[in-house]
Structures are given as structure tokens and as C-alpha cells.
Amino acid sequence: TRVQLVLLALQNTKLVCVARKMAALKRFVPMFDRILVERLAPETKTKGGILIPEKAQSKAHEGVVRCAGPGAMKEDGSFAPIGVKAGDKVLLPEYGGTKVVLDNEDYFLYREGDLLGKFTSS
User: Fold this and answer.
1) What gap in Å lies between CA 18 and CA 26, rounded to an integer?
2) How far is CA 34 from CA 7, 59, 90, in A?
3) How far apart are the first and last CA of the chain?
4) Side-chain half-sphere of 119: how many Cα atoms within 13 Å?
5) Maximum distance among all Cα pairs of the chain, rounded to whole angstroms
6) Which of 10, 25, 78, 91 is 20 to 30 A (C-alpha) from 17?
7) Residue 9 C-beta-side C-alpha neighbours within 13 Å
8) pTM (predicted TM-score)
9) Which H helix or E strand runs over 25?
10) Residue 15 half-sphere exposure, CB side, CA atoms within 13 Å?
11) What angle do CA 37, 39, 41 make, to 5 degrees?
12) Tens of pLDDT along 32-41?
């Protein structure tokens, strides 16, 4: 039916967008202990369902790690592993980070030591 065709077209569009986003990220590799993070959108509703005006919305302090460098270099030339990996949800500082635009998407580069914490699923 017509509705199914529209839904199929929307799914294909989403898949193309995801594929393009992943292609942009594959071209970018952070150096040393730097981590590329995509900030999560701020909350627009309260738990009770009340809409929050844009001016009252706070800056998002959470993000998702999209890719990470090999780690900080030790004195012996080896790399210290990074404590986060792609897909981890992290707590970000209020200020800081270097803005990077890849295929019209905003990302931020942080050093591993700048991240405040990592959220776990348990």
C-alpha cells in the first residue's frame, strides 16, 4: 500500500543518513588521547510532560563517544589504553572541547582526562 511505501522510503533515508555519518567518522581519527564526542540534545520536556522553552533549556552535559585515539604515549613509546570506546555514554564538562564539523554534524574533541565520567548500563 501507499503507507508501506512511504515507511519504506523513510527507513531507507534513515539508513542512508546513518551510512553517510559513519563514512564521515571513518575518515577522521583522533590523535593520541583525544576522543570525538557527539553531544546529546537537551531535554525539551519534563518528566511530567511540560514543554521547556528554548531559553530555559540547559546545555547538554552528556554525549556519546563516536571514536577515540590510541591513547596517551608513555615514556617507553607504547600507548596507555583509553578507558572509553565508541558508543559509550559519557558526562562532559560544562565548558571546553574543540568543535569539529563533519558532514554538517557537530562533534567535539576532548582529551581523555577532560571527561568527567562514563555511564554504565547496570
Assistant:
1) 12
2) 39, 22, 14
3) 43
4) 12
5) 65
6) 91
7) 6
8) 0.70
9) helix 2-27
10) 6
11) 160
12) 889 999 988 7
95 CB-near residues (< 8 Å, 6+ apart): none
| All three cell numbers of 69 | 585515539
Cα–Cα–Cα angle for 114, 67, 18, rounded to 5 degrees? 130
Mention every residue, 6+ apart, whose C-beta is less than 8 A from residue 31. 69
What is the amino acid identity at position 79? F
Tell me the sheet residues that pair with 77. none
* Percent over 70 (pLDDT), the chain: 73
State the average pLDDT for the chain: 76
- Contact residues for 80 (Cβ-Cβ < 8 A; gap 6+): 33, 71, 72, 73, 74
Task: In whole angstroms, give the CA distance from residue 47 to residue 34.
Answer: 34
- Report the alpha-carbon distance of residue 107 to residue 66 in Å, rounded: 9
